[in-house]
Amino acid sequence: MTIHPQPIIGIVSPCYNEEEILYETSKQLQILLSQLIEKNIISDKSFIAFVDDGSHDKTWTIINELATKNNLVKGLKLAGNVGHQNALLGGLLTFNDDADALISIDADLQDDISVIEEMIVKYTEGTDVVYGVRKQRTTDTFFKRNTALLFYRMMKIMKVNILYNHADFRLCSSRVIKALSQFNEVNLFLRGIIPSIGFKNDVVYYDRLERMAGESKYPLKKMLTFAWNGITSFSTFPLKIVTRIGVIIFICCLFMSVYALYSLSMGNTVPGWVSTVLPMYFLGGIQLLCIGIAGEYIGKIYAEVKQRPRYIIDKRVD
Ligand code: UDP
Ligand code: MG
Question: Are 260 and 210 within one domain?
Fold first, then answer.
């Protein structure tokens, strides 16, 4: 049953130093959109929007050129580099007024664009969020694959509600994006926020492809920050673990002191050094860990309280 016939679809792609890839990405997406327009699946007002996340290379020059030459392409330039999540948010909120639904996709086309049609069909049938889910990631490096696996495991243990093997390749209807605009958090973790919004959702499966050119903009340090952000923005589980560790250690200490008193009363004087110094170090360590984790959350509160803008728009071309 078609609820939204021939919708206006916008494909939003954040780009950070993607000069090597942009022409190809734009070409492939334009071919896809033209085919869908021809088949009367989507409106001819549909578009591709590239968001330049403060790149240092020719990314903006290329976006500008593509947008001026081609009426399927729009461009948005952010004033500085705000990171993948915020750049994507900037694109989604800016272009939501021009479309019925927006599809987010990485500029490197590692996500298989051939499932976009399936996503759109699901939207026309009344689904608000369609998640792209990777079937396998054999094309990723061993390192990327395993760190990603670890990432999803950690999220599960930490009780963060995200979809397994779903990155930021998804379709959201404009009312989902409108709902998203009400989430004012600075530490943005879209993979956690969007499932928490609700509405009818579905998934499409695809194979993860290789990056066409250029390098991953997610080095290990950024990946760790991303995972840590995901956990601390969505879960207080680390704080709970710390409390539990505290309780367990406290109980162990009770037993230890009972044993020490007993040994003392029996006249077995304890040589003493190990049993005094080791627990001191141990507890000191645990205390520091607890303070550190609590501090991370306080840091998050600090960032949220300031309510700074998450992105600043420099210019737009249509
Ligand atoms: N990206 C961005 N800002 C950044 C880092 C990355 O907009 O600070 C974009 C990048 O251009 C790409 C997407 O986010 O379109 C995903 O990045 P990448 O492909 O490097 O990540 P990976 O696929 O390796 O996880
Ligand atoms: Mg990539």
Answer: no
